Amino acid sequence: MTYPIERLKRLAEVARKYNVILVSDEIYGLMHHNNQHVSVARFYPEGTIISNGLSKWCGAGGWRLGFFSFPSGLRWLHNAMATVASETFTATSAPIQYAAVTAFEGGPFLDDYLVRVRKILKTILKYIEIRFDKLHISYPSPQGAFYIFPDFGFYREKFLEMDILTSKQLCSRILDDTGVAMLPGSDFGRDPHEFSARIAYVDFDGKEVLLASDELFSEAKNYDAFVEKYCPKVTEAVKRLGEWLTQ
Questions:
Q1: Residue 126 buriedness (CB in 10 A; 0-12 / 13-18 / 19+)
Q2: What 3-state DSSP class applies to 142?
Q3: Which residues are registered as beta bridge partners of 151?
Q4: Which has the higher per-residue pLDDT, 9 or 85?
Q5: DSSP string, 155-186
Q6: Fewer Cβ atoms within 10 Å of its own Cβ: the N or the C terminal residue of the chain?
Q7: Residue 90 clears pLDDT 80, i.e. is over it
Q8: Closest Cα partner for 119 from 26, 223, 204, 5?
């Protein structure tokens, strides 16, 4: 989810009034499905530190080059953090440095890539949402990135009969019975007895999907067929989860 602009403005007002320094983690910002990410730094530039990196928006999992962007008035904090970092991190590997130069220079190639990635992720999400709705699984509809946070509360009584009492137990049981891996909602601060989880839906060949993504922009586009053809592990996981729940 992303903050509405009015809420960002109100947060900025409070932070400015009380001289609070904000750290805004925007590593998923460019993954907003409609490219409408707005930073709180727009409304509180003098007191906002932005953190970002390559691994998420660039589809470069494991290529852990991150950065902080400081306003000029927080140079004292920038210098202190740089001192600590110099004793903590070693040099970034050459391949990641070259990738970072390409990524942060941007240009038409990166713009086209991001348009395609947003379309792909939005298409996969819609495929999942349609099937989750039929299974009475509730969720906040994601506005970006590549996760969905379902609540399986509709099946609570059945779970209790199976001695499944927590989200951790639920995820373990589903993994054992179906091979579908999820993280329990309790890992994200939810009540352990709430049957929620987080699912990432990026288990597919990224290169193959990108090369085929023209199909999503053609007049004869068939979204379901695209997901089933190029994201078979995702569709199989949704199918197995549905069968488990309905049984």
A1: middle
A2: coil
A3: 138, 196
A4: 9
A5: GHHHHHHTT--SHHHHHHHHHHHH----EEGG
A6: C
A7: no
A8: 223
Q: Is 52 helix (H, G, I), strand (E, B) or coil?
A: strand
Sign, CA dihedral 67-71-74-79, equals positive
Per DSSP bridges, beta strands 22-25 and 48-53 are parallel
Length of the chain: 247
Task: Compute the mean pLDDT over every residue in the chain, rounded to the nearest whole number.
Answer: 95
Among positive and negative, which fits the CA dihedral 187, 175, 235, 53? Answer: positive
Question: What type of residue is 239?
Answer: K
Taking only the tens place, the pLDDT of each residue in 38-67 is 999 999 999 999 999 988 888 888 888 889
Select the more confidently predicted residue: 218 or 180. 180
Contact predicate 203/182, CB 8 Å = no
DSSP helix, strand, coil percent of the chain (3-state; round to 5): 55, 10, 35
**In contact, 238 and 171? CB cutoff 8 Å:** no
Token pair recorded at residue 105: 């220079």
pLDDT digits (tens, 9 = 90+) for 19-44: 999 999 999 999 999 999 999 999 99
**Whole-number Å distance between alpha carbons of 99 and 35:** 22
Which tens digits make up the pLDDT trace of 107-142? 999 999 999 999 999 999 999 999 999 999 999 999
- C-alpha 167/C-alpha 175 separation (Å) is 12
Enumerate domains of the chain plus CATH numbers.
5-105 (3.40.640.10), 109-246 (3.90.1150.10)
Strand partners, 25: 51
